[in-house]
Every structure is written in structure tokens, then in C-alpha cells.
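Progress against Task 2.4 (sequence-to-structure conversion) is shown through the following example record, which the project officer requested during the mid-term review.
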Amino acid sequence: MSEVTIIGIDLAKRIFHLHGAGRDGSAVFRKRLSRGQLLGFVSQVPRCVIAMEACATAHDWGRDFEKLGHEVRLIPPVYVKPFVKRQKNDSVDAEAIVEAALRLSMRFVALKTEGQQARAMLFRTRQMFVGQRTQMINALRGHLAEHGLVAARGTAHLKKLANAIEDINTNLPVEVRDLGQMYLRQIGELTERIAELGLKMG
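C-alpha cells generated for the chain above:
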């Protein structure tokens, strides 16, 4: 397999399709490997370029392939699509990845370190919690508005609703008061998590 200079890998959850090509782009092999077989196979291949679409799992595989001495090229999926010549399937995708990677004008995505991916996860998780908190505040506002308690949008105006829920003189049904307190506890927990993640982000 010494004539192989580039391998295109179509990544998946369980089954991976590989297209190996020579320096001129001609096909040398096509393979279908399970997740457990992939790294072992790549470790037996002489050092070459390994190209993949830039996706959620590509960076982790890319780091493993680099440790084996290979050069990794990650391509935005939108740049691979024009090179799919016939009906789309995983094998055809692997071949298209090779063709895209061989283009001199192709733009590649930098391989992320584990630290960079962890920081991205931290940011996305905080954003998710912020969205969940906003959703809960809006839901609480909507429910209480049905009982005559109106507050402006936003976290800053949550105090007005909390005070009304806690005030025993507020004309609210017991069930509504209990559910409102449940909302407030959940919102408070989310606020704590958001603050904690904000500190970790620096």
C-alpha cells in the first residue's frame, strides 16, 4: 500500500468508508471498516494525507491520526459537495473528499486541540442554560399573566413575579403558587450554573 498518498474517510457512528488514492488521484483501494477497525488499519498505512469532512467527531479522529504520523486535512462539508459525481452514498462521499482535498485552492479547517473543543463545549453549554432560563421565565410570565400578574420581559423583572408568588396576600390559587415556586427554584439553579460556567470561561 506504499503507493497510497491520500485517504478520504467518510466518518459515521459505526461504519466508515475509506477511499485511498495515489499521487495522481487514481483509486488504490476502497474499504468499509467498523469503528473498532479504523485506527488499527490507519496505523498500518504508510504516512500519508488523511482527509475528512470537518464535523463533530473529525477533530478527535484527526488527533489520533496525527499521532500516527499522518497529515490531517479537514474540509468544510459544503466544499466537498460539488465533487460528488454520482448518486450520493458513503463510498462516493469518501472519493469526493479525496478529490476536494487534492485541490490546490481548497481551504481547510484547522484541527482543534482537546482544550479548544472543551472550551467550545463550555460556551455552548452556558448558552443552552441561558436559553433554558429565558424559556422558563417567559413561561412563568405567561402563566402568571393569566392571573393578573404582569411583568416586563427579562431576568431583571423576575423579582416582581417572585415577590408576588411569595406574598401570601397575593390572590393566587395554591396550585399556581406551588408551581410558580417550582419555576423559581429551577430558574435559580440555572442562574447558578450560568454564573459558574461564566467564571470558568474567564
